[in-house]
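The pair is set out directly below:
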Amino acid sequence: MKNRMFLIILNQIGILIFLLIPVCTYSQSNTISSHDSINTVEEALRLINTSEPTFKPSIPLPMDSAQIADMGFEQVYKDEPCKYTLRDGAYLFAQKYPRESKTTIILLHGVLSNSYTYNKMAGLLREAADAQVISLDLRGHGQSSGRPGDVDYIDQYTDDLADVVNKLKEESPDNKIVFAGHSMGGGIILRYAQREELPPADAYLLFAPSLGHNAPTLQSLPPETQDSIEPFLKIHISRIVGLYMLNTIGIHKYDSLNVLFFNLPKEVPLRNYSYRSNMSNAPADYKKALQSVNIPLLVIVGGDDEAYVAAEYEPAVKEYSSGKVVLVEGATHNSIRHNAKALSEVEQWINTLNQP
């Protein structure tokens, strides 16, 4: 039960912020008086400056050998480290898994992670898809530039991804580009799909993706367990509400404030996420995001996923897109990345894409 709670909390962080949007009824399309604007700012500042959450000392959750293996710490495949320079002069670190192929897969990791723990997944994707794989560290993660858990503005993750695509297109203009993402990485890809001005990919491969706050895949903690242990994640709800109010009237100067706090040692660089980072890692509306997908889409999820309601992926994806969903019985949120059946499905799907 404790490990289930850990994963449910861990993989909802990119979507919880949007649950509070109905609290604020301001609309950018409506005229707001100066008096109302002043009141809004005053109330928002009060909310964002309330005390940040803290954690009591706690014992780490126990994990068995299978769960440890599923986390992906073992470095199974040899990679080539590389960097991609971005439009602002920053760079993204990547682990490249080379292959003589006409297909390049760009792999995006999940929350609190980086390309290091996606070594095995990247190597397996290379074999299954017969493709070169570029496993990225998102901005502020791993060895990439940026402040841990922060971006400079909302949707910078997708701008960074666009810059990498442009670099790869310069190197190999005839190669197909496939975006692959796990959990939060899948949510970022769906945000990318909604931005028509960005360089297009040729296909999306999503493993248990974060679909957003209003998706039926959203899983809630059982009420009887919510107060049983010190949580792994605490959310600064009043700050989220205040920042949303300020954003609604065009004020973004406080978006760097942290709204998500993880129960990790102070020595860990990445243990908080800012408002603007959290706003950037899942679609605001899963229906619109899926409707924006006009290229081949494969969604793979484990039947025993602890973070999302696995059975809800297929009806959601099929109603709003032409994508395919594969449910792998017995696989969990992390183990789906290394599952043999999942990789077999990837191989068949890629072969279909490569047919003339």
Summary: Residues 33 and 155 are 29 Å apart (CA to CA).
